[in-house]
Amino acid sequence: MSPHTSDAEPARSYAEAVRRGVPLRNSDGLLEYPTVRSRPAPDFRLGLFHRTLLIGSVVVSLGHTLWMVTRIPSMPQQVPMHFAADGSVNRYGSPWEIAALGAFMAAVIIGCAVLTRYPRIYNLGRHVTELNIQAHYKNNVQLMVWVVVSLAVLHIHIQGTVAGDWPLSPGLWIGMALLLGSVTFFTLRSFRLSAHPPGERSGT
After folding, report:
1. Alpha carbon 121 to chain centroid distance?
2. CA 192-195-197 angle, 5° bins
């Protein structure tokens, strides 16, 4: 078991920090975390808004999938299963493919939701120090929440499109815009956290 970062003596070189799994004391006197093992435990809690988004997205996505599965016996023998860029159908298939699609998407959504519990394993990039690591954790967890929301929107919309409940557009593009917009926003915020850490020391 790795020593807790607050109890371990910081390394004086990058190679030593990686070998021992401990923080590195940089030239500014700040602790850097070159490995997952060297990082401290998260000490923040998601706000009610993001917790509600996360739980609601998973519940609604699973509920919609189960509802769709119960409808499969009453569907036509062939339903739209693939669409061209212009929204036209270019492949039909058995409605039971919806169950496989739903199971796959639900697994991805649940997996992303579970990852919100483990921000230490995220790729936080460089310049992660004791001044900004907790802010990076929170930023990346919030990103994962919005990824879950976006995937849930796409999941529900695609299932409904296959079942004939609504057209492919514009819901698909709204879901994609939500996903790409979220990734862009939180990635840019991550760069700002690295450049201007919260509580940045004067003169650094």
Report:
1. 12
2. 85
What sign results for the dihedral spanned by CA atoms 139, 143, 146, 148?
Answer: negative
- 170 upstream amide cis, omega within 30 of 0: yes
Task: Give dist(CA 92, CA 97) in Å, integer.
Answer: 10
Residues 6+ apart with CB under 8 A from 119: 42, 136, 137, 138, 140, 141
Note the maximum CA span of the chain.
Answer: 70
Q: What is the pTM of this model?
A: 0.86
User: Which of the two residues, 71 and 86, has the higher pLDDT score?
Assistant: 71
d(CA 165, CA 157): 9
Q: What is the mean pLDDT of residues 91-116?
A: 92
- Dihedral over Cα of 44, 45, 48, 49: its sign: positive
112-154 tens-digit pLDDT: 999 999 999 999 877 799 999 999 999 999 999 999 999 999 9
Task: State which amino acid sits at residue 89.
Answer: V
Residue with tokens 């036209």: 88
